[in-house]
Amino acid sequence: MELSRRELLTRTGQAAAVATTASALTIGTAAAESGERVKLTQGTNISVSRSRDGKWLAIDLVTAIWVLPASGGEARKLTDELQDATLPSFGPGGQIAFQSYRDGNYHVYVIGLDGRGLRQLTSGRYDHREPAFSPDGKRLAFVSDRAGSYGVHVLELSSGTITQLTGVPDEAAAPQWSADGKRIIFTVGNAAVDVVSVDGKRERLVTAPAGTQFFGAAFGPGDQPSYTRIKPGQAELVLGTTAVVTGQDVFGFAPLWDGDSVLYTADGRIRLLANGSTADIPFSAVVPVTTRRRPHRTRNLTGGPVKGIASPVVSGDGKIAFRALNALYLLSGGKAVKLTGGRYFDSDPDFSPDGKKIVYASDRTGVAQLWLRDLASGEDELYAPAPHAQITPRFSPDGTRVAYLDQDGQVWVTDRQTRRQLTPTLFQPGRPTWSKDGGTVALAAVKPFSRRFREGTSQILSVDLASGELKYTEPMPFRSIATRGDDGPVWSPDGRLVAFVVESVAWVVPVDAKGTFQGEPRQVTHEVTDSLAWHGSDALVYLNNGRLRKSTLDGGVTTIRHGLTWRRPKAPERRVIHVGAYWDGEAHELKRDADIVVENGKVEEIRPHRGKADVDASGLTAIPGLIDAHNHWHLRGRQWGARQGNAWLAYGITTVRSPGDPVYQMVETREALAAGTLTGPRFYATGEAVDGSRVYYNFMRPTLGKAQLDLELRRAHELGYDMLKTYVRLPVELQRAAVRRSRVPLSSHYHYPAALFGMDGQEHVGATNRLGYSHTITRTGRAYQDVVAIFTASGMSMTPTLFQSRALYDTDKSLVTDERTRVLYPPWEYERYVADADTQGTPAATASRSVLRGWVEFALAVHRGGGFVITGTDAPLDSPATATHQNLRALVEYGFTPREALMTATRNPARWLGLPLGAIKAGAPADIAFVDGNPLADVKAAANVRQVMVGGVLHVVPDLLAPYRQPQVPATTAALDPFPSAENRHWWHEPEWAERVCCDH
Prior knowledge:
By secondary structure, the chain is of the alpha+beta class. It folds into 3 domains: 41-286, TolB, C-terminal domain (Neuraminidase, 6 Propeller), CATH 2.120.10; 303-567, TolB, C-terminal domain (Neuraminidase), CATH 2.120.10; 624-917, Alpha-Beta Barrel (TIM Barrel), CATH 3.20.20. The protein is 15% helix and 35% strand. It contains 16 helices and 71 strands. Strands 56-55-54-57-68-69-70 form a 7-stranded mixed sheet. It has a 5-stranded mixed sheet with strand order 37-38-39-40-71, with no helix packed on it. A hairpin with a 5-residue loop joins strand 45 and strand 46 (497-502). Helix 3 (643-650) packs antiparallel against helix 16 (957-965). The longest helix has 16 residues, at 849-864. It is globular and about 85 Å long. The two termini are 46 Å apart.
C-alpha cells in the first residue's frame, strides 16, 4: 500500500525505531535520584496576573503556573513540569489562560483556579503565544506566527474562530486589551508600541529611541501606553513618556493598572505601587530538585578502529575519498591509502567527473583554499585562489566548474580563471550539489518562521544560475534536513533524484532539472544515517555510527570496510622541568623553586629544585593547563583550519569541551588529537545537540519524538559521546526521556525542570530560550534567589560564557593586540575582533559593563553558595582562546579572587569531566602552562604563556605560531559581477557573526 506524504511523516520515526535494536545507552531508565525541596521566595523574570475579584494572583515560576492570595503567602501550583507553562492571564470565573510548550509548539491553554478543567485552545505546528483575556471574558488575544510573522490574533471562545488583526511584516508581542474591549495594545519588534482596534484600525503610539527596547505594553490611566523601557543595565516602568518606576530591575511584562496604582514584577518580587509608595507582596513556593548527579563516564581514548570518517564522497567507478586522522584518504578495493597529511587542515574532497582528480580545501597557504590533486601523479596545485576562505567544494557534472562556500556562508562558482558569487550570505548553509545539466545548484539553508524567534526549518535552497531565482523547498511539511552539513541535498548523477536525511534516516525524491519535487519522498534507510553520497544513481553511501555503509534504493545494506585504526602515541621520555614557582590548583599561594618530574605523560613527583633540569623554566610559573568547558570547535572549524588547536595551546588551554559539534567532524578531530596527527588540546565533546521541531544552527538535530530520540541516543552511544546537550526547542518530556535513557552527562540552556530530572548542567547564564527571555537571568543581567537556590541545592553546573566580558576591552586590549592573536586568527576573524574591541567604551559598544557585573555577581553567588561554576566561552561565537582569559579577568573584576577564578577553569571543569585534570600533583596528567608572572596575584598573568605541555608533550609558543607567521599570498582569480541570485532578498540571509546570536534571547 502506498502511504500519503502525511502518513509517511507520522511513521518515519516509528519505522526507523522498529528496525533498530535497542541501544545499550537507552536500556532501562535512570535510577531514582535522591533530592530535596527548595523554598523559593523570589522569582527571576516572573509575570503576574490578578483575578477579576481582586482576591488572587497568578504567577509563572520555574515554568509552572502558581496562584496565591492577593495579599501574599504560600503559592499553590496548578500545572505540572511537562506543561512548561508561562504568562498567566486571569479571566472570568477564576479561569486562567497561559501559554504552554507541552507538545513542542507554543499553544494557549486555560485552567481553573482550583487546578481543574485544563483545556487546550490552539493546536498545530505554528506557535501561539502570550494570551490575554478580554474584559468580558469572551475572547482571548494572542500572537502567532501562523501567517508568516508574529501577528495579533483574537480567539472567540464560544466558536473557536480565530481572527487575525495584524500580520506580515509585524513581529508583535504581548497583546493586552483596553478596558472597553475595543482595542489591543502590543509591542512591535521591541522597538515600538502600537494599538489595533478589533476592526483592524492601527496606530503607532511610541517609538523606542536608539539603544532602547520596549517590553510588556498595557493601557494605563487615561488610556496612556505603559511599558517597560530597557537600556543596558537599566529597566524602567513608563507611563506615557514618564518613568514611574526607576532604580529597579523591572521585568518587562504587562503591568496591571487600577486607577493610579500598578501591580508589576521587579527585583525578583511582586510589587504594588500605590499612593506614591511601593510595597512587596511576599510569596513562597517549594520545588523539588535532584541532588545526586550521574557518574561521569568521560575517559581518555587510547585507540581502536577509526570512526571519525568525515564527508565521504564516491567516484563514478566506486572509489571513496574522505577525511580521517587529519588527512585525506582514498578507499579502493578495501584498502585506504593516505593522500595528504601533515600539520595543516585538508578537508572535504570531491572527485572530478572522470574520477582522476580530487578537489579539496586546505589551509596550507595560511587560509583555506581549493587544491587539485592528480590521483595518478600525486601532484597538487592551487585550483582557483581567492582572498576569502574556500570550503566544501563540489565539481559540476561536466568538471569545468566548482561550487564552494566562503567563511560568510556565500556560495561561489569558479571555472579556475574567474569566480562569481552565487548567493547572498547565508546562515551556516550546507555543502552545494549540482543538477545534471549544471544549471542549478542546491544546498541546505535555514528558513526561520519569523524574525522575532530565529528558529525555523533546514530546507533545500535551489539556485537557478540562469534566472537568478532562489527557491526554498521543505523536504517534507514542517520537517528539516537533519543537519546543514553533509546530510543533503545531494543530486543523483543521472539528475533524476535528490537524496537527503530527515529524522536521521535517508530519503529520496524524484525531481526535475531545477530541483522541483516530482513526487513524494521515499524512505530508503531504517538505521541512523549521516553524510550521504551517491554510489551511481541507484545506491547511497553513508555513515552509520562510525561505519561506512552502502544501501541500494530498495533497502539492501552492506558495510564497506576501510581497515583504518589509530592509537595514542607513546608518551614522551622522562623530563625534569625546573620552574621558578608553581600553583598546584588548590593552594592559596605559589610554591617556589621546584622541579616537576614528568614521566609517561604524567606528573611523577614535585620536589625542591636540585641539579640540572631537562627544561629550564626557572623564570616562569607553572599552573595547571586551563580548561574551556564550552566551545564549538567545528562551528567554524573548516574556516579556522589547523590554527584553532595552536591558538588554544598558545594561550595555555590544554583541554576543551564542546557541548555541540557536527558529529563526524568532532569524532575525526577527537581521534586526530588523541593520535597526535593534529596539534591541539584534549578534546571532549558531543555531536549535534538534540533539538526540537525547529532549529537554527546547522549542527542541531531536530527531534520529533521518542522513537527518533532512540536513534539520536544510539548514535551518541556508538560514537562515544562524552556528554549530551539538549537544545532550545526540545520539549520537556523529551528532555526528561533523554536524561532517563542516557548514561553520559547532559546539559541544556534550562535550569528547571532540568534540576528536577537530573540534568548535570546549564550552559550560559541565560542564553537562547524558547520563551524569548530567560528564567535564570533578566534583561539587565541579574538573577534572584530562586535561580541561585536551585543551582546551589541541586549541584548542577553553570557555565557562564561571559560574552559581555568584551566590555573590558575599553581599558585593556592586550589580548587583541597580542602576537599570538594576530598570527593565529584567520584574517577576517582578526579584523572583526579588532573592530569589536575598538567599539567598547563607545556608544556603539556591543557589550555592557553593567550587564557583565550582574552576570558575574550571579556566578559568584552560586560559587560562594557552594554551587558549581565552570568557565566556558562559546568560542568561536566569542574569541577562541583569548575569551577564556577575558572571562577569567571579568570574574576577578567583579568579585572572584584570582584563585577562585582559576579554579573555575581548572579543578571545576575537570571534576565535571570526571578526569584527574586541572591540577599539578603526582599522578595527574602533565597538562601544564608555563606563564610569566603570578596569576594568584594578577589573573592576567595566566595569559602570559611561554610554553605549554599536554600529556608530557611540550610546545613552545614560537613553534605554534610558525606555520602561520608568514602565510603565502597567491595571486587570486578575477571576480566577475555576482549572479543575480546573489542579491540579498531575505532578512535571514546573514552569517552567524553578524550579531551575537548565541545570547540575544
